[in-house]
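user: Please supply your own:

assistant:
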Amino acid sequence: MTATSWKLRCVACGTEYPGLEVRYRCNCGETLDVVHDLEALDGKALLAAFEARLGSRRPLDRSGVWRYRELILGLPDASLVTRLEGNTRTYDSARVARYAGVQRLTLKHEGENPSGSFKDRGMAAGITIAAHLGMTRVACASTGNTSASMASYAALAGMEAFVFIPRGKIAFGKLAQALAYGATTIEIPGDFDAAMALVQDVCRREGIYLLNSINPFRIEGQKAIVFELLQDLNWEVPDWIVLPGGNLGNSSALYKGLAELHAMGIISSLPRIAVIQAEGANPLYTAFTTGAILEPVRNPQTVATAIKIGAPVSWRKSLRGLAATNGVVEQVSDQEIMDAKAQVDRAGIGAEPASCATVAGVRKLSARGVIHPEDRVCGILTGHLLKDPDAVVRYHRGDLEGIESRFGNRPVQAAGDLESVMALLRKM
C-alpha cells in the first residue's frame, strides 16, 4: 500500500480529499479520517508479519507503531521517524482489580513510551508526515504531554517546534520536557481551548504544520495502542477497553484501529469502549447522557491536567466509536481520580492523575452494574507517574486542595541519629 491509496474523508459529510493534502478539517468544518484501502491488504498475511516482527532486531520492527506500518502509513521505511515508541507493558494487579470491583483487569501503561505518554505513538506518525511534506516547523497547543512528545520528535527530526500552553496550568514535569527538548514555549492566558484556537490561526498564517490530534495522522499512530494491546492478549478481544477522555483523539484512534482489524478478519468481534471524563471537564459525558450536540465546558477544572479540556476536537469521532461498540461515557470526581491513583501507585505501577481516571471509571461502572465482575477489562494508563509529581506529593502530605488524603503515605520526621530512627521503626 502506498500513500497514494490514502484518502482524507470528512467524518460528517463524507467529502474526500487527497491523502497528502495539508488539511486538518473538511470545508464544512468537521474533522477528517485517513481512509486506507483495506481490500488491498491480506489480514492473515499482516497478522503473520506482526508476529514475526516481534523477534526482529530492525528498529522499525521493534517500534510499537511501525511494527504495524501497513496499517499506519504507506511510506518507504527510510522515511519513518521513530524513537522505538510503544512496546509498553501490561500489568495484572489483584490489588487494583479488587479496588475496581472486577476479577480481571489488565492495565496497559502508555506512560512507558519514550517521552512518558501515549502521545509518542501519534507523534511518530505526525512528524513522519511533516518530514515527508517538507515541513521544517511544527506546532501544537498542549496541557503538557503533547508538547513534550512533539518537542522530542521534532528535535529528533531536526525541526523547529513551537508549543502553546496555558500559563500556570501545566505540570512542571511536562513543561520541563518541552523546554529541555528545545521547543519555543509560548505561555498564554486562558485554558487549553484558548491555546488551541490560537495555534490553529498561527499555523494557518505562517505555514507551520499543526500536530494536535485534529491532525488525522496523529490518530493513525495512536491506533497502534490497540494493535499492540491485542497482540499482548494473543489477539483475544476483551469485553471492555476503558480509557480517559480529554481531547478524545485516543478513544477515536482506538475505535478506528479496532474497526480496521475487524474489517480484515484479524479479530472476530469488537470490545465495548468506555471513555472516562473528569467531572469538571465533562462535555462528552453531558452530550452522551443527554443525546445533545456537544457543548464546550467553559473554564474546565480538574486536578487531572492532561484531560482538562472543555472543547474536545475529536468529539464526533469519539461518539461514532461509542455508538459502534455499544460503549459508554462516565464521569469521575477529582477525589475518585486521586484515590484510584493511590491504588495504582501503591501496586508499584504508578501513573499520572488523568491516567487513573481509567481505574476510577472502572470502579464506578462496576458499582453501577454496567461492567460485570467477571468481564475481561483492559484499561489504558496514558501518562507516567513523574509527569505530575507535585500532585503526588501533595496528596500524600494531605495538602491537595479539595482532596481528602484517604490513602495517604505521609512522610515522617526523625532526628538524624541511629537511636531516634530505631525508636521510630519500633513504633511502626
Q: What stands out?
A: Residues 90-116+218-397 form a domain with the Rossmann fold fold (CATH 3.40.50.1100). The chain has a mean pLDDT of 94. The radius of gyration is 21 Å. The longest helix spans residues 192-206.
